[in-house]
Amino acid sequence: MDYQKLAELLFPHVTETPAAMEAKFPPRNLPEGAKVTRFAPSPTGFVHFGGLFPSTIGERLAHQSGGVFMLRIEDTDAKREVDGAAEGLIRTLEHYGIRFDEGAVIGEDGTICDKGDYGPYKQSQRGPIYHVFAKQLVSEGKAYPVFTTKEELEALNAADKKAEIKAKDWHEDQTEAREKMLEARNITIEEVEENLKAGNPFVLRILADGDPEKKLRFTDLIKGNLEIPENDEDFVLLKSDGIPTYHFAHAVDDHLMGTTHVIRGEEWLPSLPKHLMLFRYLGFKLPKFMHIAQIMRLDENGNKKKLSKRDMGANMDDYSRMGYAPACVCEYIMTLLNSNYEEWHMQNPEKPYTDFPFNIKKMSNSGCLFDFNKLNDVSKNIISRMSAKEVTEQVTAWALEYDPAFGAQLSRDPAMTEAIFAIGRGGKKPRKDLATWADAKPYMGFFFDYVQEDEYDESFDRADIKTALEQFLASYDPADDMNAWFEKVKGIARAIGYADDMKAYKADPTAFRGNIADVSMFLRVAVTGKLNAPDLYTVMQILGEDETRARITRMIETL
Ligand code: GLU
Description:
Layout: H1 3-10, H2 18-24, E1 36-39, H3 49-64, E2 68-71, H4 85-95, E3 102-106, E4 112-115, H5 127-139, E5 143-147, H6 150-159, H7 163-166, H8 174-185, H9 189-197, E6 202-206, E7 215-220, E8 224-229, E9 236-238, H10 246-256, E10 261-265, H11 272-282, E11 288-292, E12 296-298, E13 304-306, H12 316-322, H13 326-337, H14 341-347, H15 372-385, H16 388-402, H17 404-412, H18 414-422, H19 440-444, H20 462-475, H21 482-495, E14 498-499, H22 502-507, E15 514-515, H23 516-528, H24 536-543, H25 545-558
Helix pairs in contact: 1-5, 1-9, 3-13, 10-11, 13-15, 16-17, 16-18, 20-21, 20-23, 20-25, 23-25
């Protein structure tokens, strides 16, 4: 077979050579040890929580080493593509602080454009590049065409989107598969010419030289040392529309873009024999690989399950709606990624997570467990250390979008809102009430409106409550400092036969009708409508004398 002639017949439009391509995308001029990584999503929907993993790892490894982090849009499967998904993806990643140095970006006109010298960064725009290397493989006898008729192809496409590849995956019946494969491999130049003349489409298949009985040694930076079988499958490189499969595009793109570390989901591990073959056939240096385990969750019965697309917590856009601050989600991801992150964070509470020396070796090689409780804990810690101003701004912005009525209340008097969020903040042990911005309303919405109801436990004598509230009104002076205020509350306790001191009460509960905590609670429920609320003295200060008195008076009338 004259492979050179075959290559010309199949790719008459390709005039460039692989060498010219290499010259167009020269090795990057980076410091020793700099890593070049990429996030390569397919624009088929939203950003999955599992997608934030590889992107965070890629971002950290590149930026920690003075390297480059790219965004490549893998849109070679037009049928699965969702309109606007790529733009949505870029915006979501940006929201989570995932900063790309190169790649697909949203331009001023709102459409996707390229930033960087190694593009295009959208695979659908790289057709001519793939064809250069496809032609090379054919000319070296490493790939060959398999023709179909248009009618056959249409029938396949109508049945199943991926049918074209699947139907010829000659692996179901091994003997038949082998025969078909050898037959297809033996196509002659004359047959090719006839098919081309008839306008028949073809897929381009690799001519595999592997022996699956033989194993290749391979080291994955996460999975460790592996032995993988050689590939003997003549898999598809180009589909009949000339668009590459993932495998082919991956090899060409990661080579030309200078990727040093391929970070991707472990679902690609079974395809690795194909990729090793491709890099070898094309004469490309093999990058390092990191295959990340799937993220797991616990189901209702406590069993581990994969975090699937439909699960709560999978879609990153849900987090915005639920009111999670991006910084909290990012930090939570760090705790999942590196086992020593939390320890580091406790020692460096003021430092951003980007200061943490992220280490591949500290990654678990089995699936991380996604857990909302843990996320909430991480989140509460972070929010407790934010300034009142920052919390005010973020809660208000969130509420204006997702709970406009509440947003309007918060923005009516920003200074008051900030004073509210300042309660219990700034000390050594700050309050940890908020895991999400949505938690703000149940926590402090009572400042704006609340339901005045008799929420007191049945065991309390209504007369005691009434008397306590009346005495408070009689003695209340907003000019009192916290001590004077509390002394008055103690005085009320004594006056109605309640212990003003918890120690004394605990020593002999029968000697009292109740205790000081009960009296504080009588006031708290009257003023906030809640059993748990931030420091009551400060709450009254912020509400002001009129509102405080009005609320207590209304409660007295209710009882
Ligand atoms: N487009 C592939 C995916 O979304 C990318 C895998 C990779 O990073 O190479 O799974």
